[in-house]
TrEMBL record:
Coiled coil: none annotated. The lineage of its organism: Bacteria, Pseudomonadati, Pseudomonadota, Alphaproteobacteria, Hyphomicrobiales. PANTHER family: NADH DEHYDROGENASE [UBIQUINONE] 1 ALPHA SUBCOMPLEX ASSEMBLY FACTOR 3, NUCLEAR PROTEIN E3-3. It comes from the Bacteria. It comes from Stappia indica. This is Uncharacterized conserved protein, contains Mth938-like domain. CDD domains: Mth938-like.
C-alpha cells in the first residue's frame, strides 16, 4: 500500500559471492558488473562495503568479519591505499594468532594479487581501501 511501511530501507552493501575486482580508483571499485563507492572487504562469504578508515585504524575489531571466517582464510591482503602502509603490531599479532598470513601493500597491488589468488581458488581475503 502506498504511504505505509518503512519507506526506503538502506542496507549494508554486500555481494554474496566471490568475484574478481574489475577496476579500482576514483574512490571505489568495480566487480561482478557492479560498482561500489568506498572501501571494500572481500571474504569467502562475499564482498562487503567497508568503513572509510585510515590504514593505521585497521585493527582486529575493524576486521572482525575476517576473524569470523578464519577457517576459510589463509591469506589476508591489506590494500592500504595509494602507498604501502605497514600494519600495526596488534593487527599483525592478531592475524598470526589466527593462523592468517597478512600482507600489506598498496591497494593496486592488493587488487592484482587478490585476483590471481582468487583465480587459483586460494583461501584469500582482502581489505581494500579506496583510492582516488
Amino acid at each position: 500500500m502506498a504511504g505505509r511501511g518503512q519507506g526506503i530501507v538502506i542496507r549494508d552493501a554486500h555481494f554474496p559471492g566471490r568475484a574478481p575486482i574489475e577496476a579500482y580508483g576514483n574512490g571505489g571499485f568495480r566487480f561482478a558488473g557492479m560498482s561500489h563507492r568506498g572501501s571494500i572487504l572481500c571474504v569467502p562469504s562475499g564482498i562487503y562495503g567497508f568503513a572509510d578508515l585510515a590504514p593505521k585504524q585497521l585493527d582486529r575489531q575493524a576486521l572482525e568479519r575476517v576473524f569470523e571466517e578464519v577457517a576459510d582464510i589463509e591469506v589476508l591482503l591489506v590494500g592500504t591505499g595509494r602507498d604501502l602502509v605497514p600494519m600495526t603490531a596488534d593487527l599483525r599479532s592478531a592475524a598470526r594468532e589466527a593462523g592468517i598470513m597478512a600482507d600489506p601493500m598498496s591497494t593496486g597491488a592488493a587488487v592484482r594479487t587478490y585476483n590471481v589468488l582468487l583465480s587459483e581458488d586460494r583461501a584469500v581475503a582482502a581489505v581494500l581501501l579506496a583510492v582516488d
